[in-house]
Design goal:
Blueprint (H helix, E strand, L loop, with lengths): L1 H26 L1 H8 L1 E7 L5 H12 L3 E3 L5 E7 L3 H5 L6 E9 L8 H12 L5 H33 L6 H15 L11 H19 L7 E9 L7 H16 L2 E2 L6 E8 L2 E7 L20 H10 L7 E4 L6 H9 L4 E6 L2 H22 L8 E5 L14 E5 L9 H18 L5 E7 L2 H10 L1 H7 E8 L10 H7 L1
Parallel strand pairs: 5-6, 5-7, 9-10, 9-12, 10-11, 12-13, 13-14
Antiparallel strand pairs: 1-3, 1-4, 2-3, 4-8, 7-8
Helix pairs in contact: 2-8, 5-9, 6-8, 7-12, 10-11, 13-14, 13-15
Length: 484
């Protein structure tokens, strides 16, 4: 009898194990489907930094990236589970999922024919997978907003229970934290458990997408971005007619201000790309809480820093820091370097110090314990007479005054040569490098050529990023190295 019981128990154990495995397989079907669901994501980046953004995508997402002919845009393929990682990219401004890309679209000769073709195009596009991605993205943001409201309510209850004196201070810290968290969906890299949560959410959303029979009526708008001189229609006309066809196809309601879905119609010469926006506001709105007259975008600051390829233990200096956007972005992404923010204006130094303090508060709240601090400091100094030893700085990254909002072009003819001499003095010989941003190209170029021999002796690389009104940057490093 004992042998029979043992055999029975073994058989029951095997059957139970097989049943558990079958349950796991059936439960994981939506997830396995989500793993196979791959979409193309488009991102807008500061013009001139397309290659920098593409390098970040390849490094962090392990995905191939294509730079668009239309300046300021890149495209890459991902699985839906990597959606949170995409929102954590530091060099992109806005994100959208591509519905379809028409590379060689033949426009008709008359406006009426072109607009009629755009109307017919709306009903032929593969909307299914992009809308699933949009829904997952929206549900994830709503889930995060609900969490924040719960945390706010619980913190208010704790304050009302006997800590009324500290209410103002805690409310300020909470506001700072909420503003910082609004810039991305979740900090993917600091919480590995999020990946499993995203996978579960993706599976649930894909399952609900299949079960839905009466989809809710959404509000939408169409935004058309057009570039090219050979078009016989305007952006507003294309958005109007294409949007009308989208409305007829989905039975959505058009709303230009309070919309749920933003459909993007990007037209560049003979190329048409239709997409659905995944971000409500630009991802560059992070870190900075105290703004100045010339505050630099965080995405642009990241791109300039990445050009210099910071290495561990490097000393990185921004001698004209303003509100400290560059060193703050550096301290966030390259925490194994030391960043120095300096400016001659005491108001600017004060703003930079306040932004550093806000970043430190955010870091402490995120970790849930007191922090040792950040590798960054703010100093008031004269850029033409830096209190730094010769050859003590590894990297110089700064946004120089253009002579429009700050300073004047006349003063730049005295400022630029003096600050270039001083930068070359403090930069480390042989390995020193710099990324300088300016729009006063004439003044910068002439002063750089005059002093290029001394500067190139002390700096291994100088990237003069000459930005125009639309941040059209051109990198003249290779050209100047050939000349000298």
């Amino acid at each position: 009898m004992s042998d029979v019981q043992e055999a029975t128990n073994q058989l029951l154990h095997v059957n139970l194990h097989e049943n558990q495995m079958s349950i796991k397989v059936t439960e994981s079907d939506p997830r396995s489907e989500s793993e196979h669901l791959r979409v193309t994501i488009g991102a807008t980046v500061p013009t001139g930094f397309e290659q920098t953004a593409a390098d970040e995508v390849r490094e962090k997402l392990r995905s191939s990236c294509k730079i668009s002919k239309d300046r300021g845009k890149i495209y890459f393929d991902i699985s839906v589970e990597s959606l949170a990682q995409v929102h954590c990219l530091r060099s992109v401004d806005n994100l959208f999922v591509v519905v379809q890309e028409l590379k060689d679209y033949q426009f008709k000769e008359t406006k009426e024919e072109v607009l009629k073709d755009l109307e017919e195009l709306a009903g032929k596009l593969p909307w299914s997978d992009p809308l699933k991605v949009w829904k997952i993205n929206t549900s994830f943001k709503k889930k995060k907003t609900k969490r924040k409201k719960i945390n706010q309510n619980s913190s208010k209850e704790k304050i009302d229970n006997g800590c009324g004196d500290k209410r103002d201070e805690r409310d300020v810290k909470k506001e700072v934290t909420d503003n910082a968290l609004d810039s991305c969906i979740l900090d993917y890299y600091e919480n590995p458990a999020i990946k499993e949560e995203i996978s579960t959410l993706v599976g649930d959303e894909l399952a609900t997408c299949k079960d839905e029979t009466d989809p809710e009526v959404l509000k939408f708008r169409v935004t058309c971005n057009r570039a090219g001189e050979k078009h016989c229609f305007s952006s507003n006309e294309a958005a109007r007619d294409f949007g009308g066809a989208v409305q007829d196809y989905f039975k959505w309601k058009a709303d230009m201000t309070n919309f749920d879905v933003e459909v993007l119609l990007n037209i560049h010469d003979n190329e048409i790309i239709v997409g659905i926006a995944l971000t409500e506001e630009s991802l560059h709105r992070r870190n900075i809480t105290h703004f100045g007259p010339t505050t630099l975008r965080s995405t642009l600051a990241y791109g300039m820093l990445r050009l210099c390829a910071p290495q561990p233990t490097d000393i990185i200096v921004d001698p004209m820091c303003g509100t400290g956007a560059i060193p703050i972005e550096g301290a966030t992404e390259w925490c194994n370097c030391f960043h120095v923010a300096g400016d001659n204006n005491p108001l600017a130094v004060n703003r930079a110090a306040n932004n550093i303090s806000s970043l430190l508060t955010k870091s402490q709240i995120k970790e849930g314990k007191p922090s040792w601090g950040l590798p960054i400091d703010a100093i008031q100094w004269d850029v033409c007479n830096l209190p730094l030893r010769t050859g003590s700085v590894d990297i110089i990254v700064t946004d120089m005054p253009f002579g429009k909002r700050m300073g004047s072009k006349k003063r730049n003819w005295n400022l630029y040569p003096a600050c270039l001499w001083e930068m070359s003095r403090v930069c480390r010989p042989g390995t020193g490098r710099a990324a300088l941003l300016t729009q006063d190209k004439k003044c910068f170029t002439k002063n750089k050529i005059k002093r290029n021999f001394l500067v190139m002796q002390r700096m291994k690389m100088i990237n003069s990023i000459c930005a125009s009104r639309h941040w059209k940057c051109q990198h003249d490093l290779a050209l100047r190295e050939k000349q000298y």
